[in-house]
Amino acid sequence: MTRCSSTQHTLIAYATRAGSTREIAHFMGNIFIQHGKPVEVLEVKAVKHLEQYDALLLGTNIRAGQVMPEILRFAQHNAAWMPRLPKAYFVVCGTLRTDTPDTRAIVEAYLEPLVRISPPLSKGLFAGRIDPQTMDLPWRLILKNITEGSMTPGDFRRWDLIRLWTESVVTRLEQGAALMSIANQMAAV
Ligand SMILES: Cc1cc2nc3c(=O)[nH]c(=O)nc-3n(C[C@H](O)[C@H](O)[C@H](O)COP(=O)(O)O)c2cc1C
Questions:
Q1: What distance lies between CA 20 and its chain's CA centroid?
Q2: Closest ligand 1 atom number to CA of residue 129
């Protein structure tokens, strides 16, 4: 867990199966810290409450064209609270190993179930990693023969692009939090 102490902070919550999304979430957390922004990075299953956070970054890997069920459950469970938070979503997958308008459209559609619950300020679409060593024998044998498409083994993460997007999100979430605070104050008058 990455944590920078303060009373106000952003939550980065993620789902992963083989660890590449976790590494990306912590990389993002360190960028928040470099910008002096308090942040907590947690696997989504470990998040107890959203009320203590000012902004949310939600990320998931993809399997069989789906976001992870625990991310969806989290969003459904917090559906009433999510609209109150400035938020961004990111997805980590194999499809974006080839980055074209068509693959971007496919990957953006992966996020639709979350977007329907509460639309984000920004969406980060990233290529991930398929490492046969993290999988059991049947998968290792299958992956040995795959050389193209979303299941191609390799580490396709573009840390430069992840950094650029995260830096833009630091600013957008901060602006979003400021706007929401003003709106809440006006509603209370
Ligand atoms: C069994 C399996 C199914 C996958 N299905 C898809 C898929 O449907 N679409 C896609 O773009 N990537 C797919 N991928 C690629 C993963 O999303 C990618 O490897 C991601 O980086 C994994 O994240 P993780 O290491 O956090 O688990 C799949 C990977 C595996 C192992």
A1: 12
A2: 21
